[in-house]
């Protein structure tokens, strides 16, 4: 399989702010992405769902229970309903006006100045509209997103569908040993289904002798300690995903 290079013109190591600078601002919000930009972080990672009215909304969980006390499933809500939800106050009252963003709004604001890893949040193995919807939105931005955007997911079927729709955009399989991940996908074997270009394992599975390290570029998550980040870079990873990217960047600069 011929792999698409992963952000080849961007300096290494790649550094992604996980859901934005989520250690100092509410995750997946304009505030968290703007904070990453202010800190000089070159990339952001975010998550998207397809809501009932067809928009791609930036959120991690299936519901807003954790971030807003709202148990309704995102896929059953219209964007108008979602936009009314306060997703900032859970973090700090000074963020009470933070609202859920559409993917297009993030791309318009930050791309291509920052590179963006977009994680597809879906549990479906078939008849899934999310990958095609994401490809459609990205294609509408044209050359602006080329070598500025990547797509990732725990779901290898979603990645395979997306790759058929937009073969020019690099994709990555995400995995971890979390019990919520199907057992057969906890060690990255889903890459055989996904046909992806790079790999996003949890950092605990990254070791110099790990077989997958030799098969494709690796960008582990979530690394919040600068010394651990330097260790991972020593193993040969292409980049780092962090809740505290400002500290990781400082550690990397100090090493240099």
Q: Determine the structural class based on helices, strands and strand pairing.
A: alpha/beta
Which regions are unreliable across 5 or more consecutive residues at pLDDT < 50? none
| Beta-strand content | 15-25%
Give the number of DSSP strands.
10
CATH class membership of the domain at 26-197: Alpha Beta
Order of helices and strands: EHEEEHEHHEHEHEHEHEH
CATH architecture of the domain at 26-197: Alpha-Beta Barrel
Task: Give the C-alpha Rg.
Answer: 17 Å
Q: What is the CATH topology classification name of the domain at 26-197? A: TIM Barrel
Give me the oligomer status.
single chain
Q: What's the tally of helices?
A: 9
Helix content: 25-40%
Look at the structure and name the CATH superfamily of the domain at 26-197. Answer: Phosphatidylinositol (PI) phosphodiesterase
In round numbers, the mean pLDDT is: 96
Give the CA-CA distance, first to last residue.
Answer: 35 Å
Basic shape = globular
**Largest beta-sheet characterization:** 8 strands, mixed
Task: Please give a handful of descriptors for the protein shown.
TIM Barrel; 256 residues; alpha/beta; two-stranded antiparallel sheet; 10 strands; eight-stranded mixed sheet; 18% strand
Describe this structure in words.
- The chain has 256 residues and is α/β, with parallel strands linked by helices.
- The chain has a domain at 26-197: Phosphatidylinositol (PI) phosphodiesterase (TIM Barrel, Alpha-Beta Barrel).
- The protein contains nine helices and ten strands.
- It has helices at 30-38, 65-68, 79-83, 103-110, 130-140, 156-165, 191-194, 226-235, 245-255; strands spanning 14-18, 43-50, 56-58, 63-64, 70-73, 115-120, 149-153, 171-175, 198-201, 239-242.
- The strands form two sheets. Strands 1, 2, 3, 6, 7, 8, 9 and 10 form an eight-stranded mixed sheet that branches. A two-stranded antiparallel sheet has the order 4-5.
- A hairpin with a 5-residue loop joins β2 (43-50) and β3.
- The longest helix is centred in the middle third of the chain and has 11 residues, at 130-140.
- The radius of gyration is 17 Å and the shape is globular.
- The mean pLDDT is 96.
